From TrEMBL:
Cadherins are calcium-dependent cell adhesion proteins. They preferentially interact with themselves in a homophilic manner in connecting cells; cadherins may thus contribute to the sorting of heterogeneous cell types. SMART domains: CA. Gene3D superfamilies: Cadherins, TCF3-CBD (Catenin binding domain). It comes from Cyprinus carpio. This is Cadherin-6. It comes from the Eukaryota. The chain crosses the membrane at residues 578-606. Keywords: Calcium, Cell adhesion, Cell junction, Cell membrane, Cleavage on pair of basic residues, Glycoprotein, Membrane, Metal-binding, Repeat, Signal, Transmembrane, Transmembrane helix. One of its GO terms (molecular function) is calcium ion binding.
């Protein structure tokens, strides 16, 4: 038989052996393997300056002649791990951390350098990172919070803390933790292996100390020296238990109050001390003995846990009571700490004071019928003086509460009577205030509310519940329903309303049917109504109630006659529409409107023609002539002035706009523009004006209105004085123009014209 034995060397290389048994001899043969390795180990956090040596890879196919080339692949190949292609030495190029990655899986393969062919298949191997103690323990919380009842026994569980170590727990003691307490003795202890914190001291009293801070340490390397450690803090609070009985600070208390204090008012407060808190400090006070037990009462203020002493009845000046206080929530396990109750003596003194009158009731309620006659008594108010019961009291009504002066009270006996008639429908309740004052000291005054209820009597008749808009169709049939009516009554009977509906007299057109449920139906008695004969009917309806005495009223129902369609729907109730439909057709109405429109158009046209028949002239008479006087203070530039007015425009009227109209008249119509014929060059403006005047006089297209323009004195202030021919000599020979040559070059052309002309005439 054949036995295969796997031997693992200390360097991690595996050897494969064949174990053969031949007779009595044991023959061992080494089986050839392509690789002589399987896994490597590497320490983390390497701090050397050179690459860290991992191991050597060598194939049996490598004959050592340098033809083998080793290639590495897998996790970290080429970055973290490098292999020497010739020797197969494997190195780590980086500093590794086991807590980041504990192992790397790689593949190695040998190739022939010459042929490039693999010498053997690739083989996988693992590089494991050996752990070192480089991580300190860390608690899951930086601060823990815990609570435990006070007075707990030793060993009572408080809290469990937990720490973790990132180092390898399967290798050495790097991750083996031990817990210990650094702060908090002798009150607390911690279990080294579990981290459970327990009570280490008995009778820990919350009233002495409430809060504790405990520091817990977790140390690796099993707590040995050189191990790393971490700490956390545990805030422990002792919760309250009812272990403190209530105690009064004094054995007796003295309270005082005024005798005028109202029943139920507070006399004073006392308080017992209890070191507990919450419901364990809740207390209950009660009076257990004393001569004031029947007149005083004590209650517990739930907020302040004080005993509030109240006055139940005042009959003496001094009261003495014994007050007991106990816890409301007692714990039997602490009953040995003493009785959880205490007592104290309370003395209450009533101080004398002049008190106002006291009424026999806190308020009064009276009833009266609304038809009660004036002067009848409604009720009586009673009050007395608590200082001396025989002192007289004076009564009065506060007039602000009875502005209508409906009631009166007798100032001596307190009897309230009626002054005016009452009406329940106006007001059902009257709230007044009655004042009672001492006659000897009117400032001592008390008031009491008096409520007077006015009882109903049947003094109002029923009437329609609303205003009805009733109509009947012209084509209605007999017995047809046209309206359902109901009634209201301001009275309020005890058994409810019951109305009866009837007609005041027999009506030939309509009838009424009582539904006996406070409603009634209005029916037609005949068929066929006509709006021309009667457009509106008035139907008197008598409504009676059933109370005593019976009240009734007559309400009139207005019924209009309307035109309806075949289904009974109203179309029109207007009498005007009836007349219109009866007398005129639609065609006649249209013809009348057209005639009115034509007449209006004729009137408007006649008015327009009348206004255009005659046009008022701008110049009514010849005397209405106004001079146009224009003042020029500029002598002109002479022939060198190219900006001056060119008279050639007047001599050549063809340059004037052809559509320019006369502005001195209101034109009646537009005439075609008549262009005047050109005329020869004129030597003088006068000749030009005369020729144009004659042309316009003979023009048949010119309106028959003369236009008169007067040219007179053109203004003063010019150094050339007046150039007008007005007021000059009769003939031109009287003028001398030689002075024009002295005016300068601006008047040279003018001087040549007149001086030359004068010379020609003289020759």
């Amino acid at each position: 038989y054949c036995i295969f034995i796997l031997l693992e060397r200390s360097d991690g290389n595996l050897f494969h052996w064949n174990h053969l048994m031949k007779g009595d001899k044991l023959v061992l043969h080494r089986s050839k393997r392509d690789w002589m390795w399987r896994q490597f180990f590497l320490s983390e956090e390497y701090t050397g300056s050179n690459y860290q040596y991992v191991g050597k890879l060598r194939s049996d196919k490598d004959r050592g002649d340098g033809t083998a080339r080793y290639v590495l692949s897998g996790e970290g190949a080429g970055t973290i791990f490098r292999i020497d292609e010739k020797s197969g030495d494997l190195h780590a190029t980086q500093r590794l951390d086991r807590e980041e990655k504990a192992s790397y899986t790689l593949q190695a393969q040998a190739f022939n350098k010459i042929t490039g062919l693999p010498l053997e298949p690739a083989t996988e191997f693992i590089v494991k990172i050996h752990d070192i103690n480089d991580n300190e323990p860390k608690f899951t919380k930086a601060v823990y919070t815990a609570s435990v009842p006070e007075m707990s026994d030793i060993g009572t569980f408080v809290i469990e803390v937990n720490a973790t170590d990132a180092d390898d727990a399967t290798y050495g003691n790097s991750a083996k933790l031990v817990y210990s307490i650094l702060q908090g003795q002798p009150y607390f202890s911690v279990e080294p292996e579990t981290g459970i914190v327990r009570i280490a001291l008995s009778n820990m009293d919350r009233e002495v100390r409430k809060e504790y801070q405990v520091v817990i340490q977790a140390k690796d390397m099993a707590g040995q020296m050189g191990g790393l450690s971490g700490t956390t803090m545990v805030n422990v609070t002792l919760t309250d238990v009812n272990d403190s009985p209530p105690r009064f600070a004094y054995s007796s208390y003295h309270l005082s109050t005024y005798e005028s204090a109202e029943i139920g008012s507070t006399v004073g407060r006392i308080k017992a001390n209890d070191g507990d808190e919450g419901e364990n400090a809740e207390m209950k006070y009660r009076i257990v003995d004393g001569d004031g037990k029947e007149y005083l009462d004590i209650i517990t203020d739930e907020t302040t846990q004080e005993g509030v002493m109240k006055l139940d009845y005042e009959s003496k000046r001094v009261y003495t009571v014994k007050v007991e206080v106990t816890n409301t929530h007692q714990d039997p396990s602490f009953s040995d700490l003493g009785p959880f109750l205490d007592t104290a003596i309370v003395k209450v003194t009533a101080k004398d004071v002049d008190e106002p009158p006291v009424f026999s009731r806190p308020q009064y309620v009276f009833e009266v019928n609304e038809d009660t006659p004036k002067g009848i008594a409604v009720g009586t108010i009673a009050a007395w003086d608590p200082d001396a019961t025989h002192y007289p009291i004076q009564y009065a009504i506060d007039q602000h509460t009875d502005p209508e002066r409906l009631y009166h009270i007798d100032p001596k006996n307190g009897s309230i009577t009626i002054l005016k008639s009452l009406d329940r429908e106006v007001s059902k309740w009257h709230n007044i205030s009655v004042l009672a004052s001492e006659i000897n000291n009117p400032h001592q005054r008390s008031r009491v509310p008096v409520l007077i209820k006015v009882l109903d009597v049947n003094d109002n008749a029923p009437e329609f519940a609303m205003i009805y808009e009733t109509f009947v169709c012209e084509n209605v049939k007999a017995g047809q329903l046209i309206q359902t009516i109901s009634a209201i009554d301001t009275d309020d009977p005890l058994v409810g309303h019951k109305f009866v509906f009837t007609l005041s007299s027999m009506n030939p057109n309509f009838t009424i049917f009582d539904n006996e449920d406070n409603t009634a139906r209005i029916l037609t008695r005949r068929s066929g109504f006509n709006r021309r004969e009667m457009s509106v009917y008035y139907l008197p309806v008598v409504i009676s109630d059933s109370d005593y005495p019976i009240q009734s009223s007559t309400s009139t129902l207005t019924i209009r006659v309307c035109s309806c369609d075949a289904t009974g729907n109203m179309r029109s109730c207007s009498v005007d529409a009836l007349l219109l439909s009866a007398g005129l057709s639609t065609g006649a109405l249209v013809a009348i409107l057209l005639c009115i429109l034509i007449l209006l158009m004729i009137v408007v046209l006649f008015s327009a023609l009348k206004k255009q028949r005659r046009k008022e002239p701008l110049i009514i008479s010849k005397e209405d002539v106004r001079d146009n006087v224009v003042s020029y203070n500029d002598e002109g530039g002479g022939e060198e002035d190219t900006q001056a007015f060119d008279i050639g425009t007047l001599r050549h009227p063809e340059v004037i706009e052809s559509n320019k109209l006369r502005r001195d008249i209101i034109p009646e119509m537009l005439f075609p523009y008549h262009r005047p014929s050109p005329m020869k060059e004129c030597a003088d403006v006068r000749d030009f004006i005369i020729s144009r005047l004659q042309e316009n006089d003979t023009d048949p297209f010119t309106p028959p209105y003369d236009s008169l323009a007067t040219y007179a004195y053109e203004g003063n202030g010019s150094i050339a004085e007046s150039l007008s021919s007005l007021e000059s000599s009769v003939t031109e020979g009287d003028h001398e123009y030689d002075y024009l040559s002295n005016w300068g070059p601006q008047f040279k052309k003018l001087a040549d014209m007149y001086i030359g002309k004068d010379t020609g005439v003289a020759n």
